[in-house]
Amino acid sequence: MTGIARQQTPNNRAIGWWLIAVAALIAAMVLVGGATRLTESGLSIVEWKPVSGALPPLNQEQWTQAFEAYKTIPQYHELNAGMTLAEFKTIFWWEFSHRLLGRVIGVAFLLPFLWFLWRGAVGADLRRRLWLIFGLGALQGAVGWWMVASGLSQRVEVSQYRLATHLVLALMIFAGIVWTLRRLADRPPAVTSSRLKITSVALLVLTFVQIYLGALVAGLRAGRIYNTWPDIDGAFIPSAARLFFEAPWWRNLFDNTLTVQFEHRMVAYFVFTLAVLHVVDAIRSRAGGAAISGAVWLAAVITLQAILGILTLLNQAPIDLALAHQAVAIAVLTLAIFQAERLAARRPQMGRQELVRTVTQIG
């Protein structure tokens, strides 16, 4: 290692811990968002104030104003008529915490990033990646309000489309950070078959698809309507007339409660099967210890996720099981990123030195 590299290693280590901290904050925000949805708290703040909204009501008058604003939307009249101020405060704090955490993430990303830029510690390629991630984070704030706005006038909940978009974008940002961390580590490329690489990427893509479908299920409350397993609506495969009664037919894929939950289940079965086959392929092709253990861990956590999904369904989505299901989904996504990146062809280093130990310890 050259003298320059040795001098820059502390900076690189700091960058690694910074990105790990931001990824952890995003994971926490996803879980707080899940709790906000499950407690029906997401519409308790009916205005978007990016700056002044960082402070909660500080006196009785401000609390009364916030409560009166909530009373103007359909959710209050149709679901919470007669709610007391104390009950309103409960749902308010969930939504406020979710929004505040979003602001904290923005500051936690931007300020250290600017400091590293000022120190000259970030190479050109890495700098472009990190600016892109920051831009997606800024977009996420706007998407969050776009989601909330869908429930303020003619609905008692937010649009399932916008909910799914909000969740997937958050996890895309999370994935971008995790992938960048993995790429910063100085590890030799894995020598594996093209088939194994393709299935690892397929598992990552399907994980995002499944998360999107899960958000649609949550937005439609489909888990509380069809809560039997392995049958659904009285059969393992419901009748086509029930699955596709809306016109045009493709709307059923997003709006039909039965169809959305059915496709969520079918994708889950497919992901589980593909994960098991990925393990078998890794072992048979002697892909190496890291690739095999990565495949095994991914399949194991997908199995746990499937079990939690079934238990959540059968118990009609209690908050503890539902949040556990969401937390393990983040774990599945993380392991899928690890495996896909581990097996992916490596390009030349991104104008960076080794992020020694820091990143390799988590991989």
From TrEMBL:
Q: Which residues bind heme?
A: H264, H325
Show the stretches that span the lipid bilayer: 15-35, 100-118, 130-149, 161-181, 201-220, 266-283, 295-315, 321-340
- Which pathway does the UniProt entry assign to this protein? Porphyrin-containing compound metabolism; heme A biosynthesis; heme A from heme O: step 1/1
GO cellular component assignments: plasma membrane
**Annotated GO biological process:** heme A biosynthetic process
- Presence of keyword Iron: yes
| Membrane topology label | Multi-pass membrane protein
Cofactors demanded by this protein: heme b
The GO terms this record gives for MF are:
heme A synthase activity; metal ion binding
Q: Where in the cell is it found?
A: Cell membrane; Membrane
**EC identifiers of the protein:** 1.17.99.9
Keyword terms, alphabetized: Cell membrane, Heme biosynthesis, Iron, Membrane, Metal-binding, Oxidoreductase, Transmembrane, Transmembrane helix
Which reaction(s) does the protein catalyse, per the Swiss-Prot or TrEMBL entry? Fe(II)-heme o + 2 A + H2O = Fe(II)-heme a + 2 AH2
- What the protein does? Catalyzes the conversion of heme O to heme A by two successive hydroxylations of the methyl group at C8. The first hydroxylation forms heme I, the second hydroxylation results in an unstable dihydroxymethyl group, which spontaneously dehydrates, resulting in the formyl group of heme A.
Q: Of which family is this protein a member?
A: Belongs to the COX15/CtaA family. Type 2 subfamily.
Q: Which PANTHER family match?
A: CYTOCHROME C OXIDASE ASSEMBLY PROTEIN COX15, CYTOCHROME C OXIDASE ASSEMBLY PROTEIN COX15 HOMOLOG
> How would you summarize the oligomeric state and partners of this protein?
Interacts with CtaB.
* Protein name (database record): Heme A synthase
